[in-house]
Hints:
Blueprint: E1 2-5, E2 11-17, E3 20-26, E4 39-40, E5 44-46, E6 56-57, E7 62-64, E8 68-72, E9 75-81, E10 87-93, E11 96-100, E12 121-125, H1 135-145, E13 149-153, H2 166-173, E14 177-181, E15 184-185, E16 197-201
Parallel strand pairs: 3-5, 4-6, 5-7, 11-12, 12-13, 13-16, 14-16
Antiparallel strand pairs: 1-2, 1-15, 2-3, 8-9, 9-10, 10-11
Amino acid sequence: xxxxxxxxxxxxxxxxxxxxxxxxxxxxxxxxxxxxxxxxxxxxxxxxxxxxxxxxxxxxxxxxxxxxxxxxxxxxxxxxxxxxxxxxxxxxxxxxxxxxxxxxxxxxxxxxxxxxxxxxxxxxxxxxxxxxxxxxxxxxxxxxxxxxxxxxxxxxxxxxxxxxxxxxxxxxxxxxxxxxxxxxxxxxxxxxxxxxxxxxxxxxx
Length: 205
């Protein structure tokens, strides 16, 4: 699967179904400032806090913004409630499980997160403030969930200048960032089997 970060909690996920590229967009938004696409043509669009403020979505994608589950082009999607009246999504595709915590701004009761099961890749907001987990709480949550790969989002960028810098989260985690790029390609065989890895994405726009 291919992953790229577009600022705030927006993530683009590209997977394969037969010979077709399947694009899933999490939390597309219209920024007050900074660079961001004016529209998307995804196959799937997932919203953790409703569709208000979304950019235009063309080509009639499958849209999910409520609790439940569905399967589209061999992508299994499950939407869980969070303590913040938001939605946490778990995706299973290409034999990889990915959890996107959405606009989580308050660390939930860890017992509530047991339902997520094992996690290969965890997407966690780390910028603090009113919209995201602060770096300290984000690091504690990552340690509790024990994903094989953690990818931070929602840190300081041109579309979110008030968010805290990524360096604050990296310091709390105490892990070396594996790479800094605008896209990460992860296959099942690439997943670490022992120590957790921290992958860093540059904003891709």
